Amino acid sequence: MSSLALSYGGLLYLDRTLPLYLDQVRPAGIDLTYVPFDSPGDLFRRQCQYAQFEVSELSASSYLAMLSRGDDRFVALPLPVSRNFRHSQVYVHTDAGIARPEDLRGRRVGILEYQMTAALWIRGFLADDHGVTPDQVDWHTGGLVEPAWAERLELDLPEGVRLTPIPAGATLEAMLEAGELDALVTVQPPQRFGQVPQLRRLFEDATAVERDYHRRTGIFPIMHLVVVRRDVYERHRWVALALYEAFARAKAQGMGRLRAITGLAVGLPFLAAALAEVDEAFAGDAFPYGVEPNRLTLQKLSDYAFEQGIAARRVPVEEMFAPETYQEPIAL
Asked: What is the pLDDT, as a whole number, of residue 151?
């Protein structure tokens, strides 16, 4: 019996998905072609608009936006392959007089895409921890370093939320540097950050702030999930568990290599100390797969998506994933 040929579009994570890319781990019954992407935005736009890949990594906020509006082209698996704290990714212009998060009220804040999951979490902690709600900020959207830009999905924002496109030919980073924006929400440092004195982080000791956020909330923000195109899933329901199991084995293999510190897998001299800190803070696994280990974070993700107008309704955790994956089938 021949294997089912499926394509997978996703970023390449050295300690989580590299064994799948190298064909060292194979999903049972599946011939998986791994297509690596450097830009998540490009991948997500292709999937949201054209469903190009049978299996892919996908923005968690975009998935909830689609699912909440009856667009069920994808079925998610509880594989949060991408997670990140985002306090370090709010940048301000030093002349704007922004000394603390509360000073963002009424300010011009650039954002690549309102619906991107990083921005969802940033707006969430600004509201929860600092009382700055999305309707109190003047949001400006456009290209980060190149003018070309487009939202991957249409938005229906809550009343009072202002989202203004920046001028044609302008870029968010250039506008921030020129003082035409007061702040920028992004997923990477501005290209000239550290080179020009007028750019700084909102939270100057962001790592300490992020550690405190995790201690207080128990949340390590989920950014991306793995999804299967529904037409494939409905014809071959077994693929949900086959893929889940393969991703779990790939992560176990990758983390095993990372922890073999007699020969450092990455060029981090203090890797052992960093792993020990992660083990203490995250009970041995910062990237657990499955529904239950991630329920708290998934619920907060759903709440934020609805409150910010990205999702049309609160999507229950019980509705997010392929039913086969709620039984916690793999423990590696």
From this structure: 67
Superfamily of domain 87-217: Periplasmic binding protein-like II (3.40.190.10)
Name the CATH topology of 4-83+221-257+284-325: D-Maltodextrin-Binding Protein; domain 2 (3.40.190)
pLDDT band at 2 (very low <50, low <70, confident <90, very high): confident
Helical segments of 230-313, H only: 230-235, 239-258, 271-282, 295-307
Residue 291 has pLDDT above 50, yes or no: yes
Radius of gyration of the chain (CA): 20
Q: Closest by alpha carbon to 69, among 321, 324, 274, 315? A: 315
- Residue 156: pLDDT band by 50, 70, 90 thresholds? confident
pTM greater than the 0.70 cutoff: yes
Integer CA distances (angstroms), 98 to 93, 188, 239, in order: 8, 20, 50
| Closest by Cα among 41, 67, 53 to 7 | 53
Delimit the CATH 3.40.190.10 region(s) of the chain: 4-83+221-257+284-325, 87-217
Q: What is the pLDDT, as a whole number, of residue 329? A: 53
Place of tokens 């405190």: 212
